[in-house]
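Changelog note: in this version the structure field was regenerated for every chain. One regenerated record is shown below for reference.
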Amino acid sequence: MLIARRGLLVAGASAAMARPAWAQSLSQGAFTHGVASGDPLAEGVIIWTRFVGGDGRIAWEVAEDEAFNTVTARGEAQAGPASDYCVKADVRGLQPGRAYFYRFLSGSGPSLTGRTRTAPANAESLSVGLVSCANYAFGYFHAYGHMAARDDIELVLHTGDYIYEYGFDEYPRTELAVPGRAFDPDHEIVTLDDYYRRYRQYHTDPNLLALRAAKPISAVWDDHEVANDSSSTGAQNHQRTEGAYVDRVAAATKAYFDWMPIRRPESNGPRVYRTLEWGDLARIILLDTRIIGRVRQLNYQRALGLHLLSDGAGTQAAIEEFRSTQLLDPARTLLGAEQEAWLAETLASSKQRGQTWQILAQQIVVGEQLVGAGAAALVSPETHANVRRYVTVGERLGRMGMPWNLDSWDGYPAARERFLQACAASAANAVVLGGDSHNTWLNNLMAPGDAARRAAIEFAGASVTSPGLEQAMSAGAAGAREAMMRSANAQLAWCDVTHRGYGALKFTRGACEAEWVAFASVRDPDAGAPNITRFSATPSAQGGPSAWTV
C-alpha cells in the first residue's frame, strides 16, 4: 500500500496481475498467443490472433454477449507462415459506441474470448491509457496488467518501443537484467525471423496478453521496433555487416504489422500515421516521427569532439556555430513535408468538424529539456566514469541553453516550431502524448513567437520497464532530480524521473483529467498498489488548452 503524492490512499492486492475472469486463460491450444483488437471505428474494429495448427483455416465471431448468443458478425481467415501464422480481420457492420466480445474458432476448439469496443458516433467522454518503452529484460509489465483490469480505460495508445531489438548483455547489461527474462533470441535481431521470434517471446508475458485481450490498442512504432536511434536513412546500431538498412526496416515493419492489431494505412512502404475519430469529441492523430521523414539525428561528439570536455570561449564559439549551422537548419525534419502538410490539414478539419480535442499520439518528447544546475552532483561516486562525463556535459550544455537529448524534438527545433505553429494556426485544443524518454513529463507548450499563448499541452514518457534518469543520477534526496529539471525548463509543469508506469487520460467537453500511475518497482513480480498523481486542463473555444493543474 502506497500513499499517493496528493494524499490519495491506494489499496488492494497486486493489481498488476489482476485480470478479468473472462481473460484468465491466455492461450488456447493452437491459438498460441492469445487474441487482440485495435484501431476501433464507429462501425468496425480489427481483431487478431495467432493460429499454428491444421491447414490454418479458422473462423471468427463477434457478439454482443460473452456467451455468443447474439452474434453480430462472423467470417473466415487463413493463417500461414507468410505472416508468422498471425491473422487479422477488419470487422465491419458493428454498432457505434458499444462493447463486443470476439473469438476465433478451429476444428480443435475456440480461442479465448476477447473484449473490444467500437468508437462512438457521438461521445461525451473518452478514456485512454498511455504507455511506451517495454524492455522485456528490465522487468515485469505491471502497467499492462493494471490497465487490463481497469473498467474505465476504453482505448490503449502505445507510442512505441513495444519491443526492443537488443541482444544479450547490450541493454540491459547482464547484471541489470531480471532473472528469467533474458532476450530470445540472445543476439540483436535483424532478420524477419529474428523479429518474429522476439514478438513471440514478448507475447508469452501474461500482463501483455491480458491487456491485448481486454482493450483495443492503437499503436505507432518508435526506434526499437527497428533499431536504436533509427531514422529514414539508418540507425545507430545498424552496421553494414547486417545487410541493407532498407531491408531491415522492411523486415521490422512487416513483423510489426503482422503482430499488432492495427489497421495498415493504404500505402506501400512503412507508413503508420493515421487518425481515429471519437465522435464529435476528439480526433486521435497518430504520427510517425521515426521512419518516414526523420533525417539523421545530430551527435554532439561527432560535431564538437573535444570541445565538449572543457569550458571556455572556444567551447562557447564551437557550440554557437553548431547551433546556427546545424541544429537550427530548417531542412532538418522529423515528420517530412508530406506528413507535415497532412497534419496541418488534419488539425484544421478536426476543428471545422467541431471536435473539442485533438489528441496527437507520437513517439518523442516535444517540450524543451535542458539539464539544470547541480545535475553532476546527483551522480553517485560509484557510477561509471562515462556516465559521470555524460551528465557533466549535459549540465554544461544546459548552462548554454543547449539540450542534451538530440534524439527528441529538441534535436529538430525548426521542425518543432512548424509542429507547434500548425497546432496554433488551427486553434486546436491539442494534447500531445509521447514516450521514448523513459521518464514522465507534463509540459505547457507555447506558440512560437507568442509566449502568452499555448499551442498545446503534453503528457510524455510513461515507460513500462525501461529505466530513466535515476539510473544516471542515483544520488541526492528524494525529488532532487525532478527539482533540478524543473529549475531549467520554464514550460515543464511536472515530472517524475524515478518511476515506471503508465498514463491515463479522460477527455470530456469541459476538461482533460490525467493520471500518472507509478509502480514502486518493476523488478518485483508482485508490485503491489501503484502511486497515483492527478492533473487537469480545460479546452478553450479560441484554441489552445489551459495550462496543466497539478
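Spot check on this record: The chain has a mean pLDDT of 93. Residues 112 and 544 are 44 Å apart (CA to CA).
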